[in-house]
Backbone:
């Protein structure tokens, strides 16, 4: 049996609305570096492939009894990068209201400061309230019962098409410098070989971007692009844009069906995880909620792996307790069963995921021309 | 007590000040270079570390300019990572107010301020040109005349966002189940010529209540903008007479905004060359100037004034006899300095006369006219000069620009800083935990 891949999704005090009230929760420290350093160090001690960090361009809720507020996830990842050595760092960044040029250089730079451990969870925003934070476009309020109306589907399809163009721009900018573009040739006084820098000249329905990036190609070439997807429109987006897709099967049969539907290199299943002891795991969730022992969770993961799932993004219900349940309970259980690493086998996130360093699309063009 | 000096370290930039050909020159991209310079600055008790930014690679004659360092990392991302390897050093980033939206940039600065424990600073720059705009979905959307009004409103809007969370908004009261003490924390509504936004900001109030604001504009509008909004001004006026004139000008503008004279720090950019003796330093400075202005670089500089392709000219030969092209279309793009030459034909005539009188080649002339280093001398000479300029109100300190990455500040840290400390004009320990405290600014 091949090894499975394990990631955890970090969000505030955990995915349960009342997680911040748990005895070992640290709700007053959610906006400090120390809080995130401790969590990600715990994940790294568990030899996990990567962590994702949730983010958004608005508050999570209007309920004062729940956690509100977030720090920028790219900056959290960057703050933690110099203090970790192996674990992949995959912040969420929203594409709908932001500039692909900025996100491209931010993720490239995260790849530099982490020496090849950067990824990106692409997120789009269909919320009218978040559009109002930017004031440059209107997005109609979408109510959940209208999600299959043709008008609503058209709005959503456009947002995903825009996201696909955005990722294409980000990826082209990452390749816009060839790896050996910096030559420092004292004889001619040239710092770069400008023939190895490329205008990306992207022109799409939504925007145009000229390039090249101001940041040289990142160590991994292409940092790992990931996306959460629940149905056909996002599945097609993920196939076009992502290296890892997070999906939300109900059971092994559903996992099998999804794996046959969405063709992405890595298909990770999302699970909300409460490891015992559990008093009340009542939570509304898009992903299946697991409650039980590490051994029971290991059984479930292996069953889903049989169905074709290559990895899991576990969403700890409570932090830090369910994260520790994963790193100190589930991981040793999987190691005993011989399906999870006991030491990090690679220095980059692509390496951990078995993805090679991709050729530069522009360098390849040059070869063809020659 | 004598006036206290403030010092900052500028990571070497993408211009010919930076000597990338020096055997000691390291990477401009690898994180280790940033760590090295930042840790040297912190060891020397500097106020802050400074990153510049440009959002389009420079071009000349329709091609990417290749003689200087090219390429740099993302500003916010590097500063957040540096917060992990420093404890006290301020972290200042240059961020453009034209190609960023207030909600996003405010959450990035507020996040950086949280993640660094109160050490964030924003050097607010403006641009308007369609050339830079080609990298952005909005394109070149702004008229030049509107760039300061957009910057002013962007900054004002960002301040409203920082202030939208009361300092005590988070109760995190587990027992009673109250996370937010103020349920409407973050609520904002802002409408002006440039922005029409409303909703809720999602980053709680940060340790400094928002970043320290730096500003670098030199025009009348730029100085007014600084007087109205900035905590420190990054100027180009590093000499005694010129510095005093600038210093008085901007400090005099503060009163009409109800501000105290010491609420705005004037920090000119400064280069330096140290030597064991003053003569030794002069000799080293001459060598550095020749490294900074190669023959090829001299021709490119000349092209920027002449606005013509001069690649057929010999840098060791005389200046061109033809006159500059004064059409609007400029040969160099993405470079602030190209607008410096207001009357190119007059400047060209001056340069030709100077070259003829002093028997200077193109390269010699460019070395002469593009400015020598601000401070040249032994450590004692430089420490005395810096102290004199600050005590005589030509500045409140300096933003030092080393010419070698990343070790170019080491000698200054080891030799000049101890002398300033002995004079009692520079800290031996950080006074506070935030940048605002170390700069002696009132809390916001």
Residues:
């Amino acid at each position: 049996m091949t090894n499975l891949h394990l990631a955890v999704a970090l969000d505030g005090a955990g995915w349960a609305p009342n997680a911040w009230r748990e005895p070992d929760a640290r709700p007053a420290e959610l906006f400090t570096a120390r809080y995130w350093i401790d969590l990600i160090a715990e994940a790294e001690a568990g030899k996990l492939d990567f962590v994702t960090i949730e983010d958004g361009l608005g508050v999570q809720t209007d309920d004062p009894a729940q956690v509100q507020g977030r720090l920028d996830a790219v900056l959290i990842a960057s703050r933690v990068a110099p203090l970790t050595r192996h674990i992949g760092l995959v912040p969420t960044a929203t594409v709908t209201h932001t500039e692909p040029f900025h996100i491209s250089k931010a993720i490239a730079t995260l790849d530099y400061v982490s020496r090849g451990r950067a990824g990106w969870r692409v997120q789009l925003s269909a919320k009218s309230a978040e559009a109002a934070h930017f004031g440059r476009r209107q997005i109609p309020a979408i109510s959940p019962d209208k999600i299959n109306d043709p008008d609503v589907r058209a709005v959503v399809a456009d947002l995903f098409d825009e996201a696909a163009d955005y990722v294409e721009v980000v990826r082209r900018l990452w390749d816009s410098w060839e790896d050996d573009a910096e030559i420092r040739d004292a004889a001619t006084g040239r710092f770069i070989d400008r023939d190895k820098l490329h205008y990306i000249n992207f022109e799409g329905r939504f925007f145009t971007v000229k390039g090249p990036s101001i940041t040289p190609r990142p160590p991994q070439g292409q940092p790992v692009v990931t996306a959460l997807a629940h149905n056909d429109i996002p599945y097609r987006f993920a196939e076009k844009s992502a290296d890892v897709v997070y999906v939300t099967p109900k059971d092994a049969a559903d996992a099998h069906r999804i794996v046959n539907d969405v063709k992405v290199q890595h298909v990770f299943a999302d699970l909300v995880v409460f490891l015992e002891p559990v008093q009340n795991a009542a939570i509304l969730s898009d992903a299946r909620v697991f409650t039980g022992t590490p051994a029971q969770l290991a059984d479930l993961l292996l069953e889903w792996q049989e169905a074709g799932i290559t990895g899991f993004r576990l969403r700890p219900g409570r932090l830090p307790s369910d994260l520790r349940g994963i790193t100190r309970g589930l991981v040793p259980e999987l190691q005993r069963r011989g399906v999870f690493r006991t030491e990090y086998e690679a220095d980059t996130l692509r390496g951990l995921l078995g993805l090679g360093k991709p050729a530069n699309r522009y360098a390849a063009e040059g070869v063809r021309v020659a | 007590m004598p006036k206290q000096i403030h010092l900052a370290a500028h990571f070497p930039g993408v211009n010919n000040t930076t000597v990338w050909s020096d055997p000691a020159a390291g990477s401009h991209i690898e994180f280790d270079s940033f760590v090295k310079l930042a840790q040297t600055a912190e060891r020397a008790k500097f106020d802050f570390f400074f990153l510049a930014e440009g959002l389009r690679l420079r071009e000349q004659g329709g091609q990417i300019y290749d003689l200087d360092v090219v390429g740099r990392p993302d500003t916010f991302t590097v500063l957040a990572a540096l917060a992990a390897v420093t404890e006290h050093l301020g972290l200042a980033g240059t961020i453009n107010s034209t190609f960023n939206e207030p909600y996003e940039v405010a959450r990035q600065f507020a996040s950086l301020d949280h993640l660094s424990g109160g050490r964030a600073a924003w050097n607010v720059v403006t641009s308007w040109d369609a050339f830079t705009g080609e990298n952005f979905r909005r394109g070149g959307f702004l008229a030049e005349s509107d760039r300061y009004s957009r910057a002013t409103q962007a900054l004002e809007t960002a301040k409203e966002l920082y202030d939208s969370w009361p300092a005590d908004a988070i109760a995190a009261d587990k027992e009673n189940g109250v996370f937010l003490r103020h349920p409407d924390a973050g609520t904002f509504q802002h409408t002006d010529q440039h922005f029409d936004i409303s909703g809720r900001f999602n980053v709680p109030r940060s340790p400094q209540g928002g970043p320290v604001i730096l500003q670098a504009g030199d025009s009348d509008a730029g100085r007014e903008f600084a007087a109205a909004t900035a905590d420190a001004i990054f100027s180009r006026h590093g000499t005694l007479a010129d510095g005093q004139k600038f210093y008085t000008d901007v400090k005099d503008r503060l009163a009409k905004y109800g501000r105290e004279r010491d609420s705005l720090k004037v920090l000119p950019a400064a280069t330096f060359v140290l030597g064991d003796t003053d003569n030794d330093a002069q000799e080293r400075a001459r060598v550095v100037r020749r490294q900074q202005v190669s023959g090829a670089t001299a021709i490119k500089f000349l092209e920027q004034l002449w606005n013509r392709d001069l690649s057929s000219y010999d840098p060791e030969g005389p200046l061109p006899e033809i006159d500059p092209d004064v059409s609007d279309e400029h040969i160099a793009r993405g470079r602030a300095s190209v607008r410096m030459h207001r009357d190119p034909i007059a400047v060209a005539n001056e340069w030709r006369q100077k070259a003829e009188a002093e028997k200077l080649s193109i390269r010699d002339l460019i070395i002469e006219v593009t400015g020598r280093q601000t401070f040249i001398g032994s450590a004692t000479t430089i420490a005395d000069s810096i102290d004199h300029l600050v005590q005589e109100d030509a500045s409140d300190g300096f933003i030092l620009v080393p010419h070698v990455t990343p070790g170019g500040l080491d000698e200054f840290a080891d030799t000049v800083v101890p002398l300033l400390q002995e004079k009692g004009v520079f800290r031996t320990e950080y006074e506070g935990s935030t940048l605002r405290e170390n700069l002696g600014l009132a809390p916001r």
About this structure: Chain A touches chain B through 76 residues (CB under 8 Å). Residues 5-126+219-355 of chain A form a domain with the TIM Barrel fold (CATH 3.20.20.30). The longest strand of chain A covers residues 266-275. Chain A has a mean pLDDT of 95.
